[in-house]
Specification:
The chain is an alpha/beta fold and 227 residues long. It contains eight helices and nine strands. It has one domain (2-223): Rossmann fold (3-Layer(aba) Sandwich). It has helices at 14-21, 77-89, 95-106, 113-128, 147-157, 175-180, 208-215, 219-223, and strands at residues 2-6, 25-28, 42-47, 50-55, 58-59, 70-71, 133-136, 162-165, 184-187.
Length: 227
């Protein structure tokens, strides 16, 4: 069994879902510190002028955990994002499919960024047709504070013998900790596919919704590089 772990992100990019797809169990790590100006409350979409951010405004106070960070609902972020998606994707082949799902998200009330992200990730996994089991770290119990020991403990929690790490993990993971615990580590090797988009030249590293807007039910095949 393969376990992968990642912070819950907002409308994540394709590589995030490749990691989910390659694991048997994926844990949304909401019990670590929130990182400002990264991917936990924003992501990119493609427009006729290039890419732009879709950002969820948050009321973050250092050193809050992801699970503790609240959304600033005094700002009309849901309406603005919905309008941005309509403006830029209304001519996409699968606009209606994605817009319905996002319409549910934008018409609901969210207090915490973690609960929003968790729901968004789960819905996108379903839309893509990925059957990996999804869990939330805060619902599993307490784990060690040390990053490597935490990941070892989460992997063992599921009785798994392999941990799937992001490609960048080679730079900071203490692999001896995993070896000592009998956990084999494998690293993600994601090759970004080139697929048909709106607005001219291909723009990589967009939110996965860009792929789904354009390819619908075929998105997982594109993600896996099988086209």
């Amino acid at each position: 069994m393969i376990v992968a772990v990642h912070q819950p992100q907002y409308l994540p990019w394709l590589g995030y879902f490749d990691k989910i797809d390659k694991a048997d169990v994926f844990v949304l790590l909401d019990t670590v510190q929130f990182k400002k100006n990264e991917w936990q409350n924003r992501n990119k979409i493609k427009t006729a002028q290039g890419w732009q951010w879709l950002t969820v405004p948050v009321l973050y106070k250092y050193p809050e955990l992801i699970s503790e960070v609240t959304i600033n609902n005094k700002m009309n972020w849901q309406h603005k994002q919905r309008q941005a998606l309509v403006s830029n994707y209304k001519r996409a082949p699968y606009f209606d499919t994605v817009e319905k799902m996002l319409g549910d998200i934008f018409s609901s009330s969210w207090e915490y960024i973690s609960e929003l992200n968790i729901e968004v990730v789960k819905r996108l996994v379903t839309m893509l047709g990925i059957d990996t089991q999804i869990y939330v770290a805060s619902e599993l119990g307490d784990f060690p504070e040390n990053p490597d020991e935490r990941l070892v403990a989460i992997t063992k929690h599921f009785g798994a013998g392999m941990y799937l790490a992001g490609a960048g993990g080679r730079e900071y993971m203490n692999l001896a900790t995993y070896e000592k615990s009998g956990i084999k580590v494998t690293f993600q090797n994601f090759k970004h596919p080139v697929y048909t988009q709106l607005f001219g030249d291909f723009e990589p590293f967009m939110s996965v919704i860009d792929l789904i807007f354009n390819h619908g039910d075929n998105s997982l095949t594109v993600l896996r590089g099988e086209t």
